[in-house]
Amino acid sequence: MELSTEMRKLLHDIDSKTSSIKSAAKLLRECEPQERKEMLTLMKAAAQEVMDCLTELENLSARQI
Amino acid sequence: MDKLRILVIEDDKLAQTVMGKHLAANLPDFASDMKTAEKLLKAGKYDICFVDLKLGRDDDYSGLKLLPLVRKSGAYPVVMSSSDDEETINKAYALGCKDFYVKGNEAQNIKAVLDKYTSHKSPQTLDDIFATQIITHDIATRTMVTEAIKYAPTDIPIMLLGPSGTGKTRIARVIHEHSARQGEFVAINCAAYSEDLLEAELFGYKKGAFTGAYDNRKGKLAQANGGTLFLDEIGSMSQNMQTKLLKAIEEKTFYPVGSDKPEHSSFRIISATLEDVQQLIAKGKMRFDFFQRIHGFTLTLKPLCQRKDDILPLIADFSKGGKRLAFEQDAKTFLLNYDWPGNVRELKKFVEMVSAGDGLVTLGIVQGHIASRMRLGTPQAAATDGMLTNQQYELAMTKGLNDAIDRFAWEIIKRNLSANNGKKARTLEQLKISTRLLYSTLNKFGGK
After folding, report:
1. B17 to chain A: which residues are within 8 Å by CB?
2. Which helix H or strand E contains B270, and what residues bound it?
3. DSSP helix/strand/coil, B348
4. Burial track B112-145 (b if 16+ CB lie within 10 A, e otherwise)
5. Domain boundaries, chain A
6. Residue among B13, B57, B58 minimizing CB distance to A42
7. ipTM of this model?
8. Each residue of B217-233: pLDDT tens digit?
């Protein structure tokens, strides 16, 4: 089934944020403690944004049923 | 090495941090939105620019809109995106992006981009070229190649002459790599297409221009915009095509098949032929004005039999990274005395075949491989591409394809009959042919 523009944008954002989290996770072990702390804060914020996108996507999907 | 000035256009803070870590050895700047990106691009001279396709949640791929400005600024444009659909990738490349990678493996992707950029910007020295790309110890060939490399950054057309398999395509590519041209190296073998197909390949076509044109297609001329168009086997191009191509070269515009809208493309021409160009002109097969346009610097490559000092270094180069080969002395002597009618291409094939066997190569092994290649035809036949020899092609051109095929059939039947002491039953069985074909061929040619 064809996805709506809004859904496509959400999926793109989810892809993008999860890719960033994945790349950041690979860097964590070589970070200094302070740097790691900052990175983890950003990763958590990105993860929260992924959650928001997923919730929105869930709502949009529910409307289609 | 100098640090590279890099602009990263990316709205995501985490992605920016990740990029910053990977680019820490260089001088990265960051822009989170269109406005800042435009300002930085206009003000600073960046070596590389990484562009995220989407800048913001509801953004409509503004990264793509920035690409023309990135190119104008002289920076090497790289698009990074989490979306890898074909349409987006094609659009990015059409707008001048040089590299496109899908987010998620930054360490490897960024390294690959930096390596590519650095190797592109730091051309190899001549010693490097002769050590890795064009293996030759022949002084005349080295002088010619050195001269050709000097012309690489200019627009002067280059013509490569020499027998098949001498490495004309490789040299054309090396010249392109040293030209500092941002566009692609686009090669086409003119002998591989009929006139109509060659026109469609070169100029591209519009949907519905002819049966089978189901979609618009970009031609080689458009692909080579800003780069190099390598026309191999140019001697086989018809006069009609030469006229059309001449016009496109002179005016830098052309019409795709089925289109009334001209398209622009600026490219450097490198051409190659194994034929005698003066003969082609004298016989009226090549237009003189076309020749003048594609001929600037000429590089003539010698056949391998005239540069035998290259045989062993070439074998060493072809076997690099694979099995180490040790040749017995008499095997080496045989290789050096053999004429290699298929030139470097034949030698490469030989190394591939030998590498499949034992590491120690004896005279018997060498003779076995060369004899099996020789059995496929005369030395002249082996010197050609694929199964078709120039002689066969000329015969088909003068006598017509049907007559030529009859003659090839006769040559095969004649050889097989001779090998079987004239026993037709064996020939019928071995060649898997009908009695009718055997007798009609014998009737036609057997008395000659």
Report:
1. 24, 38-39, 42
2. strand B268-273
3. helix
4. ebbeebeeeeebbeeeebbeebbbbebeebeebb
5. 5-64
6. B13
7. 0.90
8. 889 999 999 899 999 99
Look at the block and give the residue holding tokens 């690409």. B67
Q: How far is CA B51 from the centre of its chain?
A: 30
Segments of B314-397 assigned E as strands:
326-327, 360-361
Asked if residue B71 lies in contact with residue B77, where contact means CB atoms within 8 angstroms, the answer is: yes
> What is the percentage of chain B residues whose pLDDT exceeds 70?
92
Contacts with A16 from chain B: Cβ below 8 Å:
12, 15, 54, 81-82, 103
B347 residue type, one letter? L
Going from the C-alpha of A44 to that of each of A17, A32, B63, B277, B428, the distances in angstroms are 11, 18, 26, 69, 79
Q: Smallest Cβ distance to A24: which of B17, B58, B82?
A: B17
SS3 B266: coil
CB atoms within 10 A of CB B306: 12
Mode of pairing for the β-strands spanning B158-161 and B268-273: parallel
> What domains can you pick out in chain B, each with its CATH number?
5-121 (3.40.50.2300), 126-300 (3.40.50.300), 306-444 (1.10.8.60)
Q: Are B339 and B380 in contact (CB under 8 A)?
A: no
- Mean pLDDT over residues A37-50, rounded? 96
- Listed in sequence order, the residues at least 6 apart from B255 whose beta carbon sits closer than 8 Å to its beta carbon are B203, B261, B262, B263
User: Do B188 and B232 touch, CB atoms closer than 8 A?
Assistant: yes
- Which residues are paired to B157 by β-bridges? none
Sign of CA dihedral B214, B216, B220, B223: negative
Q: What is the pLDDT of residues B77-113, one digit of tens each?
A: 999 888 777 777 777 877 878 888 888 888 888 988 8
A43 inside 8 A of chain B by CB: yes
Chain A positions touching B105 (Cβ under 8 A) are 23
Burial group, residue B376, by CB count within 10 angstroms (0-12, 13-18, 19+)? exposed
Q: CA-to-CA distance for B274 and B168, rounded, in angstroms?
A: 10
**Residues of chain A found within 8 Å of residue B104, distances taken between Cβ atoms:** 19, 22-23
Q: Give the minimum alpha-carbon distance from A18 to chain B in angstroms, rounded to a whole number.
A: 8
Q: In B73-207, which residue ranges form alpha helices assigned H by DSSP? A: 86-94, 106-121, 126-128, 139-151, 168-177, 195-203
Question: Hey, what amino acid is at B40?
Answer: L
Q: Does the predicted TM-score (pTM) go above 0.90?
A: no
The secondary structure of residue B130, as a DSSP letter, is I
Written as six digits, the tokens of B137 are 């110890």
Looking at this protein, which amino acid is placed at residue B262?
A: P
